[in-house]
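Exercise 7b. Backbone tokens:
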């Protein structure tokens, strides 16, 4: 197993994540957990050096603090190589108790087997495009597991067809926002832009939002009287309501210059009453998911992953975070894709990944 992340809580990894991953049900079964870890060829974690919080007390794991010269390592990824399968988890959740148990997160679980190629081509692409900036911290163990995963995918020809899906690392020479917008069809106007982010950059002058809209307008890619919908973390504004958390400079953003209508909304942290009443469920969730969605008459294009809509996250400035996510294209028209992909936002629950079979 190999993981990269922004933050890692040693106690959570030791007492929750790894026991669930390896099928050790009893939290006090340290000997059994240690035996199963010993059978694994690799258990390596790369974590951003600024957020390094130490090692688990009882388990022998390879934990590597990554000190990038510019941005941060913000690429929650878990690669698991089984005897007959390769599995990749990507999204917004770091290896922390809030990330897997309490936040609103978005994650994709990609699996490829000989019987069901599934996402084999996506996984292979992700493994072949690791940013060079991570090379100094890519340990021999990590390299061995990456090579083993590629060998199993190639040897068994485990490649599905994913013509409308792409896995992407961000933080390289081509900014994430340019890569995303370049996939939008020429000549088709974007009728609606929806962005979900817990954090935002200032919009003084030409901030990230203004740069994105200006670029689309130059490409003649904005519909007249289209709309921009921004969803952010909520803060209480009364006993019964919430308001979104945006930088103060957002008030100066003039969407009328693009012939657009705009709305900023807070993601309600409360779960539905029937869900919140379930045993062990926290009744409120902190927003940590990151999504972007373009919708047009014929096409819709979505990003989900680790990148906040900030200068560093989407590459609007010189300093860029290393992130990971996926692009997905689908049909547009009448907001259908928005309902299909996004109707669970107000109700989303953080779930741990489904327990896989024992890993290599």
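Sequence design result:
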């Amino acid at each position: 197993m190999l993981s990269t992340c922004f933050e890692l809580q040693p106690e959570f990894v030791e007492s929750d994540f790894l026991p669930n991953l390896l099928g050790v049900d009893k939290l006090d079964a340290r000997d059994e957990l240690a035996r199963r870890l010993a059978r694994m060829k690799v258990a390596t974690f790369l974590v951003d050096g600024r957020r390094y919080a130490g090692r688990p007390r009882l388990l022998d794991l390879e934990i590597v603090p990554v000190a990038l010269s510019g941005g941060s390592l913000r690429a929650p990824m878990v690669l698991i190589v089984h005897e007959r399968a390769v599995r990749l988890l990507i999204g917004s959740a770091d290896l922390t108790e809030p990330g897997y148990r309490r936040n609103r997160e978005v994650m994709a679980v990609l699996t490829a087997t000989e019987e069901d190629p599934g996402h084999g081509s996506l996984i292979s692409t992700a493994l072949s495009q690791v940013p060079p900036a991570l090379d100094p911290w890519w340990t021999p163990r990590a390299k061995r597991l990456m090579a083993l995963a590629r060998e199993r995918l190639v040897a068994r020809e485990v490649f599905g067809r994913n013509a409308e899906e792409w896995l992407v690392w961000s933080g390289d020479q081509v900014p994430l926002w340019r890569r995303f917008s370049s996939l939008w069809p020429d000549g088709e106007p974007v009728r609606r832009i929806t962005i979900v982010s817990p954090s935002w950059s200032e919009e003084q002058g030409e901030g990230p939002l203004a740069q994105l809209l200006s670029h689309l307008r130059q490409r003649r890619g904005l519909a007249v009287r289209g709309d921009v919908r921004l969803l952010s973390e909520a803060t209480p504004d009364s006993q019964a309501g919430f308001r979104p958390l945006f930088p103060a400079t957002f008030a100066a953003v003039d969407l009328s210059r693009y012939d657009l209508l705009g709305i900023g909304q807070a993601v309600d942290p409360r779960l539905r009453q029937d869900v919140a009443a379930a045993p062990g469920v926290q009744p409120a969730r902190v927003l940590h998911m990151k999504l972007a969605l373009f919708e047009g008459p014929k096409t819709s294009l979505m990003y989900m992953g680790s990148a906040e809509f900030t200068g560093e996250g989407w590459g609007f400035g010189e300093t860029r975070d290393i992130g990971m996510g996926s692009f997905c294209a689908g049909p547009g028209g009448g907001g259908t894709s928005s309902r299909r992909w996004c109707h669970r936002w107000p109700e989303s629950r953080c779930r741990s990944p489904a327990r896989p079979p024992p890993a290599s």
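Instructor comment: The longest strand covers residues 222-232. The domain at 165-347 is CATH 3.30.870 (Endonuclease; Chain A).
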